[in-house]
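Lab notebook, bench 4. Continuing the backlog of folding jobs that were queued last week. Each job is logged with the same field layout so the records can be merged later without manual cleanup. Today's entry covers Retrotransposon gag domain-containing protein, a 105-residue chain. Filled in by technician R.K.

JOB TYPE: sequence-to-structure
TARGET: Retrotransposon gag domain-containing protein
LENGTH: 105
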Amino acid sequence: MDNAFDIWNDLKDKFSQGDMIRISDFQEMISSFKQGELSVTNYFIELKILWDELDLLCPLLACSCAFKCTCSALGNVAKYEGQDQVIKFLRGLNDNYLTIRTQIL
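JOB STATUS: finished
OUTPUT FIELD FOLLOWS
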């Protein structure tokens, strides 16, 4: 490695592999997270913290086109992520919310 750019890229490659493990860990925590003894408010807050941590590791894509995009692909990705979060939130609620969960899903 002859310059800072090469060193930076090498470090980035090495540490990004660790990020994949952390991303996988957060995805697993989110998927398996349940309300349990938490109030609905506290359950949501804890889940939101996990989502925010995951977003820091794996942010939504940003458009880098020279001209403003018109295909709405990025908006669709954000919409899908929001729907996924709603589903995971509802699936983690206690069974006493089964009727509400069933009506929404």
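OBSERVATION: Residues 4-104 form one domain.
SIGNED: R.K.
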